[in-house]
Design goal:
Blueprint lengths: L1 H23 L3 H8 L2 H25 L4 H11 L5 H9 L4 H29 L11 H26 L1 H29 L10 H23 L4 H12 L3 H11 L7 H9 L1 H15 L3 H13 L1
Helix pairs in contact: 1-7, 1-8, 1-11, 2-6, 3-4, 3-6, 3-9, 3-10, 4-12, 5-6, 5-10, 6-7, 6-10, 7-8, 9-10, 9-12, 11-12
Length: 303
């Protein structure tokens, strides 16, 4: 009962608060600056929305995962980005404006793309029972309420308060919502601990493989495309760090299928391993002068 209450009642509200906090730091000018370099945005979105789901299928086909675990991994790949990716992009000295815009745009697209593509994935996995049906417009509405509307609401609050007041409030709100998100993930981990696979399992290997391969792919493609280093780092993070909170909400709250949410929950925990390893490598590679380099790169790549 406690686990169901956390997953179906508390998680959507916390997720909405996280998305509202993200919107509080956004304004139309963010999108305008990134729009001056539309190729970077288009490449990031293509990697997130098209290539990442195909990569997740490659992992599923390479590893003999049980159908529910495979479905959970595919579900994670359909919800890229998230507030956590913005944090990792900042720590890695990435183009923060590009990272935030990619996160915001995927938050606006996912409510429409996820139920459609996940329905196809269920069919390809042979999971066509009523318990795995996704009523398209119902899911669009529920995801919109938790992702798109809070982001737009946060932008509206920012406009009403004014940028200076919003910027003063934003760090504290982000910290509070970040702590709340970590708390709910840990609470769900404890509640579903007996259902989680061991660390030495195919599911854990699949999660680590997808995150690591996605980051490697994002880095290689961005650099081959000739993007500035800061933009390449932002895209690397955005492709590898997924919005596990939305995936968990779909599994736990919308489909009310805890078994489907096991891999998204595992991803929400384990994606931090390759992501932090990559951030520390970037910090070592780029040297100790973090503040000057980060500011210069973000200004240089945001237009």
């Amino acid at each position: 009962m406690t686990a169901d209450w956390l997953a179906q009642a508390v998680l959507p509200w916390i997720l909405a608060a996280v998305m509202l906090a993200m919107g509080l730091g956004l304004e139309a000018d963010n999108f305008a600056r990134v729009a001056r370099h539309p190729g970077r945005l288009a490449l990031g979105l293509a990697l997130q929305m098209l290539v990442l789901p195909l990569l997740s299928w490659a992992v599923v086909l390479a590893l003999p995962l049980p159908p529910l675990a495979a479905a959970g991994l595919l579900l994670v790949a359909l919800v890229p980005g998230g507030a956590t990716s913005n944090l990792f992009s900042y720590l890695a000295r990435g183009d923060l404006a590009l990272s935030v815009c990619l996160t915001a745009m995927t938050a606006m697209l996912v409510p429409f793309t996820l139920p459609l593509i996940m329905g196809w994935n269920f069919s390809l996995l042979g999971m066509t029972t009523p318990g795995f049906s996704l009523p398209y417009w119902s899911v669009v509405g529920q995801l919109g309420l938790v992702t798109l509307i809070p982001v737009l609401g946060g932008m509206g609050v920012r406009k009403a308060l004014g940028p200076s007041r919003a910027d003063r409030l934003s760090p504290a709100i982000r910290r509070l919502t970040g702590i709340a998100m970590i708390a709910i993930v840990l609470a769900l981990f404890a509640a579903y601990f007996d259902r989680l696979p061991p660390l030495a399992s195919l599911e854990t290997s699949a999660v680590i493989a997808l995150c690591s391969l996605a980051m490697l792919l994002g880095d290689r493609v961005a650099r081959l495309a000739g993007l500035p280093a800061a933009s390449a780092r932002a895209i690397t993070v955005e492709v590898g760090v997924q919005n596990a909170g939305v995936a968990m909400m779909v599994a736990f709250a919308i489909l009310q299928n805890p078994a489907l949410g096991v891999v998204p929950l595992l991803y929400g925990l384990m994606m931090n391993v390759p992501a932090f390893a990559w951030v520390f490598w970037q910090a070592w590679r780029l040297g100790p002068d973090r503040r000057t380099t980060r500011t210069g790169e973000i200004r240089g790549t945001s237009g």
